[in-house]
Amino acid sequence: MRAILKRWADSDLAWSWRNTPVAWLSTALFVLLLIGAFGAQWVAPHNPFDLTTVELLDALLPPVWMEGGQWTFLLGTDSQGRDLYSALLYGTRVSLLIGLASVVLALIAGICLGLLAGYVGGRVDAFIMRVADVQLSFPAILIALLIDGVARAAMPRELHDILAFPVLVGAIALAGWPQYARTVRGLAMVEKSREYVQAARVIGVAPLIIMFRHVLPNVMGPVLVLATVHLATAIITEATLSFLGVGVPPTSPSLGTLIRIGNDFLFSGEWWITIFPGMMLVLLVLSVNLLGDWLRDALNPKLN
């Protein structure tokens, strides 16, 4: 383990990270949000979704620095008396889980299909790429809405809230796999003509082993950059779907759900119910995008 850490510390990527203020600042912000989200049960002062601790008399309290605010609720409360600061931490966890799960699923599907198309070629390549082209002609949010609507129509109503999370993850992943497939396909077409792949073919190595053991490690750089950027896109897509009312259920709201709930009170003076979830979403997406931009520049040999 110590040797691995030392190798990382001496790598060009670590040097670039240490000498790029934007990189370590965005990393610090993202790690802070991760700690707050996945440690919400220890960090948050309240459990906003435990009905036994929610008091309706505390509804619509302003932030602590405004008149009528209380130190018990630093960022105020919503219309049901839930602590907004605690709700933000729990909502960020839901948004991150959906974003990460959908990116991993899209990454796996895109890599497998891209390797198959780029290495095999021919009709297999033409079929996979035409499917990807057709899907890319539609906005990702429209595809996610379509899949979510079809799934809700096919499922019994009592299962909507239970299966909302996997349906949302599948919808976002299905809308994002073509980007990975096209990237991996182009890189695999270049790698398959190199000497090490030709040598592996000559000695009789199976095509699947060549694709995943030899070709895949050499195409992962751009894919990781794309995954970082896609994580921010997936979080925004989930927030949009939840804002439209077709995302996660209100019993386990994400940042998009909190923004939608607060939007009903925005013009009545309770601005904090929607502004703070919106700010949290901006900080989360901004930190991921800045990390993706740094990683793209650090892995680009033409910029080094």
Automatic annotation (TrEMBL):
Keywords: Cell membrane, Membrane, Transmembrane, Transmembrane helix, Transport
Chain ranges of the ABC transmembrane type-1 domain: 92-292
Matching PROSITE patterns: ABC_TM1
Pfam families per the UniProt record, alphabetical: BPD_transp_1 (PF00528)
Cellular location(s): Cell membrane
Protein origin, superkingdom: Bacteria
GO CC term (a single one): plasma membrane
Alphabetical GO biological process terms: transmembrane transport
Transmembrane feature ranges: 21-44, 96-121, 127-147, 159-177, 223-246, 271-292
UniProt family annotation: Belongs to the binding-protein-dependent transport system permease family.
The name this protein goes by in its record: ABC transporter permease
Species per Swiss-Prot/TrEMBL record: Pollutimonas subterranea
